[in-house]
Design goal:
Layout lengths: L1 H21 L3 E9 L2 E8 L2 E5 L6 H11 L4 E5 L11 E3 L31 E4 L3 E5 L5 E7 L4 E3 L7 H10 L4 E9 L11 E3 L13 E3 L10 E7 L3 E6 L2 E3 L1 E8 L2 E4 L7 H10 L5 E4 L16 E2 L13 E2 L13 E4 L25 E2 L8 E9 L2 E8 L2 E5 L6 H10 L5 E5 L11 E3 L31 E4 L4 E5 L6 E8 L2 E5 L6 H10 L6 E3 L12 E3 L31 E4 L4 E9 L2 E8 L2 E5 L6 H10 L5 E5 L11 E3 L31 E4 L3 E8 L2 E7 L4 E3 L7 H10 L4 E9 L11 E3 L13 E3 L10 E7 L3 E6 L2 E3 L1 E8 L2 E4 L7 H10 L5 E4 L16 E2 L13 E2 L13 E4 L25 E2 L8 E9 L2 E8 L2 E5 L6 H10 L5 E5 L11 E3 L31 E4 L4 E5 L6 E8 L2 E5 L6 H10 L6 E3 L12 E3 L31 E4 L19 E5 ...
Parallel strand pairs: 3-5, 25-27, 31-33, 37-39, 59-61, 65-67, 71-73, 76-80
Antiparallel strand pairs: 1-2, 2-3, 2-6, 4-6, 7-8, 8-9, 8-13, 10-13, 11-12, 14-15, 14-16, 16-17, 16-21, 18-21, 18-22, 19-20, 23-24, 24-25, 24-28, 26-28, 29-30, 30-31, 30-34, 32-34, 35-36, 36-37, 36-40, 38-40, 41-42, 42-43, 42-47, 44-47, 45-46, 48-49, 48-50, 50-51, 50-55, 52-55, 52-56, 53-54, ...
């Protein structure tokens, strides 16, 4: 029992120890780009959490940097500048002394106690523990470590190669290529690091390596140590897929294994490879003998080994100007395979095969310990000739020295051919022995010491006769400028001539390397504003792309050497870092951010003292960023680091450089970084009026306003530059002939001539238009796209058959086969010049190892020029099934066209019709849905014979609609609409009496009466609502641009989830709804209680997306999130709701009666600017009450009480002094004082009492193109009574005439006739009585301001699409769409007075499966209408007649 207790105690003690060990906190920095910069995070209680920035300064940061072994603190970063963290906030209000060894030992609030949020997370920038200085870039130089305040060199004593490997890896510089000791110290008294590092090679950084203190604090050494890191990390020989001592040479770089080119590959290189692999010595270098297809591009870098190097990457390397390697021309080596065997030394008579092929193929099996070099010539291919013999370097005497001798030297060194054989110590006098004299080479020898001579050391010379060589591959670099050393035209010496260098693409890394090589700092900029040089010179090289590990420009890959690599306008003019530079950082674009200046090799900031728009204007103009919008103070773009260069600036605003403004002087200030100045500029170019920031009219800022750019000579490369500058991908379309906003609007008076690689439009060459006026047809519009290229890949190569891949900003992506069809495929084939599509086999060319398959769905019609011109959807699209990639087989003949299909042609039926192999014929017809608010709902229209026309709804049902939806890639049909549900079309009616089975591939393949054969009018146009129809709305009681975001999907409205909803997504949503350009999430609104689908979450819009439907998201789900996560959005363009119910609405819905004893009596209230208000009773009468009663469908007015007869209202009094005539279609059409202008109180609220007898209210017009209707409020007896009354009135006129005739018998006959005629005309002009006026002007009749007047009736011939046969306009008609057609035809006198009509916009189905019309509002006009007295005779002559079974026509009796 005691033993058991003892064991339990030991176990408890062990667990306690383990738990205690696990409880030790850990520290890290994240999201800063290296282990020594980023957001501070601590692991405590098994969770990573952050530190609050309260009291956060350099003392706390020093502790963090020292604890992590990251040197000293450079900056204490606040306010989550490295991004917001997650999890707990562990520490707050730290108060370190700076001496603590762990940050949690500093005084602070207790663990987890804070009053912070993650937007206040603290960050750190440390110096780092190790760096390399004095080399050719960040990846080579003397090793120095940070002692806590200064950099101290590391000695070469016991410095190991694994230690060098750790350093190179920590600095992101690949692997160590060489370690050099005995490097002299800068000063005799310079201290060295008092520890030796004993790294194993696997440590994450030098700080983590074991160390050994040097005895007495002083390490034994011969000097400092220098490291050269290299991109190259391994080498191997492969044969039949396995690595061995014979085969194709392959090197491992950061990009993977690469084969080397056989060009310039020789036995010296081969011997290094064999020795490095432990494979003995090289026997031969057969070209391409082990070549294997399917490798990536052959690596162009050329190695120039002497043969004595330990590793291939220790050899000199060149890449500048090296052309692409010929197919299959890969370097190979055959090694002896015995790592202990050495070649016998060659004697002096040993001769390699002569000639230029000496270094290729088989070579004599002997080894030469001698070496050759050229020194003091500025490069390895020019200089004084020196030979290493018997351990000493010596020169060659110039007696008999000529080009034949020099040729041997150049070829031996791999430097091409000799251009010049120099004498008389042209490259300076050497020292040491003079090894050879009186050389007499034939020029074919493999080594210079094989040439006849007087023998080793036999000469009669002095060093002033030292021989030299300039080879064809000698390279040199210089800046050409009249006044400055480090600013000018960049020139390179190649092929014995100086020539310029082209500036494409010249990224920051390349400019940095050029400046370092010239000793002009470590960064540079291109100057595009310098006029091109005159005169002729070679333009040697273009396309230079330096890498981080390149130590000189010669190692940078580029295009091949050419005499004319670019135009004279593309020569590079560079300013290196000795000249101050200006930039804006951390503002999201190059034209906004914190102001920083590069001076004396350091980036620093500007203090905001006296900082205002004048200083900001100078900054914006200097950067080519338009005009200043805001001068920001107080580090609003974050605190900078480094020096504060300028303070107390006092610019006039006219200076061309910021540092030319008066100030305290460089480095003089009384500021801290918390006062760093910033700028927001307008930018020089923008796209305006499109679907977002990435499409629209091109406008540039002239210094005060935005001016459009004309389409005259506007080029596609210019569009590419604009799209890249705006962060919008590449240009997809350039459209000209865009009308200017005003006839007098000016266009930009220059033409831009961009090449396509410039960093911004400001930097493009320009040409002033003659006379300041550019020839043009209008403004130019640009549409940018994330998609930039398309290709078909099969077995790794691009061709006219294979898997479809698109290039985006993220690289090449494969497309999903879901929704991929022949229309898309035809666009791809046409775009690639591959003819037409033959088939679309799913996944047939799938290759493992690709990134996630791209989800975006393209919906091409087949006629587009580029795939990215097709409509795209991504919202709710699920991830693609593994291997289900889109593929296309093209015909391959770019001139081939498919034969046109005849009417009897039929695709394979069913849903697979668009997949796999398809009939090889082409159909020029197209199908679309219009006026439905999206591409998957609307009126069905077909393009036939060059005209868009509709389909008649006779026999129209879901089977027909299914074919339409499937053909358009819109899923299945939810509803087949009839009776011009989406408004009446125009043009022909192409098809009638369709009888689809539902399996047809195209709707025109369904049985019908034939093209153009029908007995319909456009009021019978057919429509469709498909399952993939989408719509968007805001749901709010009083606002149109703020509310719950809802999407219509699968025939139901549902909410949208708010995760992550970043700024770009909110901007796209608000623009989509016409509610401004930005929005915010409101998380403080209480969540809704009722139930609805929550359709979609995780929406991530991109800058190039023009609508929400293009934004990627999680797949559609009924429950994508909880009710608490529904998105409530407030857009910048928020405005009061125009409708009391869900917008849009009609005038009838904006009027109501309250406080009465029935629905048709009460106080009159109207909706305006988002609220209900009343009407004042001033001028209120039965005429106004009549309009209200008719508008509400409550019969006629019985009473118009005032003085708040039904009680006073509240809120605004919206209308006063309303004056109606009684026949207006709505209260809005009556004259009244301005909205909200009244001198009334609610005790004067107007009211009505209506008869309550419902009058027939005409249906809401379905489109502005449909004719309005005469309401059926009069019965047949009533009309007959009016006709009889009119006849009686005519009899009275005749009797009156007779009476006058009798009284005027004494007058002449002519006088009598004139009197009768005058009276007759007076009677015709007599005003119409109110009852007849009501007949002609009741609600529903079109107004004078209506968008659509009553059309002339032209007979059936016009409906049949035959305008030629239409008679001249004689009469007007109106239609109502009830069971049949009721046509009212009227005599051809003056038009009926009209009233405002509703304007229809979009259709949205309601949740119950029904439908409603989405309208933008009503034309609120209240003109005083003219009397229609001339219509009395017309109205009194209306009779009914039955002409056809389907038409009830009312015609006037001829007078």
């Amino acid at each position: 029992m005691q033993g058991h207790c003892l064991l339990q105690g030991l176990a408890f003690l062990l667990l306690t120890v383990i738990a205690g060990a696990q409880e030790t906190p850990q520290l890290r920095l994240v999201d800063g780009g290296s282990r020594c910069a980023g957001r501070v995070e601590i692991l405590h209680q098994h969770s990573w959490g952050t530190v609050c920035h309260h009291r956060w300064d350099l003392k706390e940061v020093h502790v963090v940097c020292r604890q992590l072994g990251c040197g000293v603190a450079l900056n204490a970063v606040c306010c989550a500048q490295f991004g917001e963290g997650s999890g707990p906030i562990w520490l707050d209000a730290l108060n370190c002394t700076g001496e603590e060894d762990q940050v949690w030992k500093c005084p602070s609030l207790d663990w987890g106690q804070h009053d912070c949020n993650h937007y206040l997370d603290a960050g750190v920038i440390c110096s780092g523990f190790v760096h390399l200085v004095g080399g050719h870039g960040p990846c080579s130089g003397r090793v120095e470590v940070n002692s806590g305040g200064e950099w101290i060199p590391v000695s070469d004593g016991n410095f190991t190669f694994p230690t060098a490997q750790v350093i190179c890896a920590e600095l992101g510089c690949g692997k160590a290529a060489s370690v050099l000791g005995k490097l002299p110290f800068r000063e005799d008294s310079e201290q060295v690091w008092a520890e030796e590092f004993q790294c194993e090679g696997h440590e994450p950084g030098l700080w983590f390596c074991p160390r050994r203190a040097c005895p007495g604090g002083s390490c034994q050494h011969s000097g400092a140590v220098q490291i050269v890191c290299s991109e190259y990390t391994e080498v191997r020989l492969t044969k039949n897929g396995s690595s061995q001592c014979e085969g194709q040479v392959e090197m491992k770089t950061s990009g993977g294994w690469r084969t080397l080119c056989a060009s310039h590959w020789n036995m010296a290189n081969a011997n290094v490879v064999c020795r490095q692999l432990g494979c003995g010595v090289a026997l031969s270098t057969p070209k391409g003998a082990y070549f294997v297809e399917e490798h990536d591009e052959i690596w162009r870098d050329r190695f120039h080994c002497s043969g004595s190097e330990s590793f291939l990457w220790n050899c000199p390397v060149t890449a500048l100007g090296v052309p692409a390697c010929a197919h299959g021309d890969t370097a190979s080596v055959v090694c002896l395979g015995n790592q202990t065997q050495l070649l016998p030394l060659c004697n002096v008579s040993c001769s390699d095969p002569a000639g230029p092929a000496a270094s290729e193929g088989h070579t004599a099996n002997c080894s030469d310990s001698r070496e050759l070099r050229l020194v003091d010539g500025g490069g390895r291919c020019a200089g004084r000739v020196e030979i290493l013999q018997q351990g000493s370097w010596g020169s060659i005497c110039d007696d008999s020295w000529d080009l034949s001798d020099a040729h041997v030297v150049c070829r031996q060194l791999g430097c091409g051919v000799a251009l010049e054989a120099t004498i008389s110590a042209h490259f300076g006098e050497g020292s040491g022995p003079i090894w050879l004299d009186e050389l007499n080479c034939t020029g074919e020898e493999a080594h210079v010491w094989q040439c006849p001579s007087q023998g080793w050391g036999q000469h009669n010379c002095r060093h002033k006769e030292d021989a030299g060589v300039i080879c064809s591959e000698f390279l040199a670099l210089r800046m050409v400028s009249e006044e400055q050393k480090c600013t000018g035209w960049l020139e390179v010496f190649y092929n014995n001539s100086w020539g310029s260098v082209c500036h494409s693409p010249m990224e920051a890394m390349t400019l940095s390397l050029i400046c370092i090589q010239l000793g002009c700092g470590d960064s540079g900029t291109l100057n595009f504003l310098v006029p091109p040089r005159e005169g002729s010179r070679p333009r040697w090289v273009d396309g230079i792309r330096c890498r981080r590990m390149d130590a000189s420009l010669w190692q940078c890959p580029s295009d091949p050497w050419k005499q004319r690599s670019c135009s004279s306008k593309e020569e590079a003019h560079i300013t290196c870092a000795d000249t101050p530079q200006l930039r804006l950082v951390d503002g999201g674009s190059r034209c906004a951010g914190r102001v920083e200046i590069f001076y004396q090799h350091s980036w620093g900031t500007v203090c905001h003292d006296r900082w205002d728009l004048r200083e900001a204007h100078v900054v914006c103009r200097q950067l080519g960023c338009g005009v200043a919008l805001n001068a920001m103070c107080c580090a609003q773009f974050g605190e900078g680091s480094g020096p504060i260069w300028l303070d107390e600036l006092q610019c006039t605003g006219e200076e061309d450089q910021l540092w030319k403004c008066p100030s305290l002087g460089w480095g003089r200030y009384n500021c801290g970084h918390f006062l760093d100045a910033g700028v927001i500029c307008s930018g020089f170019v923008r796209l305006d009026g499109g679907g977002g920031p990435c499409s629209g009219r091109v406008e540039v800022n002239s210094g005060g306003g935005w001016t459009p750019v004309s389409d005259g000579n506007f080029t596609f490369p210019t569009a590419q530059v604009i799209c890249a500058e705006l962060g919008c991908g590449k240009a997809a379309m350039v459209l000209g002939n865009l009308p200017l906003k005003e006839a007098s609007e000016q266009v930009w008076a220059e033409e831009f001539q961009c090449k396509g690689w410039e960093p911004g439009l400001w930097f493009c060459p320009r040409r002033a238009c003659p006379g300041g006026s550019c020839q043009h047809s209008g403004a130019v519009q640009v549409v940018c796209s994330e998609y930039t290229e398309v290709r078909l890949t099969k077995n790794g190569s691009s061709q006219c058959e294979g898997q479809v891949e698109m290039k985006t900003s993220g690289g090449w992506r494969t497309l999903c086969a879901s929704h991929w069809n022949m229309a898309n495929a035809n666009v791809v084939c046409r775009q690639l010049g591959c003819g037409v599509a033959l088939s679309t086999p799913k996944g047939a060319y799938f290759v493992e190892g690709h990134d996630e398959i791209w989800r975006d769905r393209f919906h091409c019609s087949g006629s587009e020029s580029f795939l990215w011109n097709c409509p795209v959807t991504a919202l709710g699209v699920p991830a693609c099934a593994h291997g289900d990639t889109a593929s296309v087989v093209c015909s391959g003949n770019q001139t081939q066209l498919l034969p046109l299909c005849n009417d009897s042609w039929s695709d394979s039926a069913g849903s697979a019709a668009s997949e796999g192999h398809t009939a090889t014929c082409s159909d020029s017809r197209e199908l679309r849905l219009v006026d439905g608010g999206g591409r998957c709902a609307g009126r069905a229209e077909i393009l036939q014979q060059g005209s868009w026309g509709s389909i008649c709804d006779d026999s129209w049902d879901l089977s027909d609609a299914h074919v339409v939806c499937r053909q358009l890639g819109c899923g299945v049909a939810l509803e087949a609409t009839i009776s011009a549900h989406f408004g009446e079309g125009s043009g022909p009616i192409w098809l009638d009496e369709l009888n689809c089975t539902g399996e047809e591939a195209h709707v025109w393949q369904c049985p019908s009466q034939g093209w153009g054969q029908h007995n319909c009018r456009h009021k019978e146009d057919a429509g469709v609502i498909c399952s993939e129809f989408l719509a968007l709305r805001m749901v709010s009681e009083d606002q149109e641009c703020a509310g719950w975001l809802e999407v219509f999907y699968n025939n139901t409205w549902g909410s949208v989830c708010h995760s992550p909803m970043e700024a770009v997504t909110l901007s796209v949503i608000c623009r989509h709804l016409g509610c401004g350009d930005s929005g915010i999430l409101n998380s403080s609104v209480p969540h809704r209680k009722d139930s609805r689908p929550r359709w979609v979450d995780n929406i991530r819009c991109r800058k190039t997306d023009t609508s929400l439907w293009q934004c990627p998201s999680d797949p559609w789900k009924q429950r994508s999130c909880s009710p608490k996560e529904e998105a409530y959005i407030m857009c910048s363009g928020k405005r009061p709701k125009s409708c009391p119910t869900t917008a849009p609405c009609t005038d009838r819905e904006k009027l109501r009666l309250r406080g009465g004893d029935s629905r048709c009596s009460g106080r009159v209230e109207v909706w305006h600017e988002g609220s209900w208000g009343t009407v004042c009773d001033d001028s209120w009468s039965l005429a106004e009450a009549e309009v209200v009663c008719q508008q509400l469908g409550c019969g006629s007015a019985l009473e118009a009480p005032g003085e708040a007869a039904f009680g006073p209202g509240n809120g605004s009094i919206w209308l006063d002094e309303v004056q109606c005539r009684g026949r207006e279609p709505s209260l809005w059409a009556c004259a009244a004082a301005l909205w909200g202008q009244s001198n009334c109180k609610h005790e004067e609220d107007a009211s009505v009492r209506c008869s309550g007898k419902m009058t027939a209210i005409p249906p809401t017009p379905r489109s502005t193109s449909s004719a309005s209707v005469v309401p059926g409020v009069f019965s047949l007896p009533g009309i007959l009574c009016m006709i009889l009354g009119a006849l009686l009135f005519l009899v009275l006129i005749i009797l009156g005439t007779q009476l006058l005739k009798r009284r005027s018998e004494h007058q002449a006959l002519s006088t009598f006739e004139g009197a009768v005629e005058e009276v007759l005309y007076q009677e015709i002009d007599f005003p119409v009585n109110p009852e007849k006026e009501n007949l002609l002007n009741s609600p529903g009749t079109p107004s004078d301001g209506s968008a659509t007047k009553l059309p002339y009736y032209t007979g059936d011939s016009e409906e049949n699409g035959d305008p030629e046969s239409a008679p001249e306009p004689r009469r007007q008609h109106t239609d109502t769409t009830s069971n049949g057609y009721d046509d009212v035809e009227e005599s051809p006198f003056s038009a009926i007075p009209s009233s405002p009509v509703l304007k229809e916009k979009n259709f949205f189905p309601e949740e119950g499966g029904g439908a409603r019309y989405s309208q933008t509002g009503i034309s609120l006009q209240s003109p005083r209408e003219p009397d229609s007295s001339n219509m009395e005779e017309i109205a009194s002559s209306l009779v009914l007649r039955q002409e056809e079974p389907d038409y009830d026509d009312i015609e006037p009796i001829p007078m």
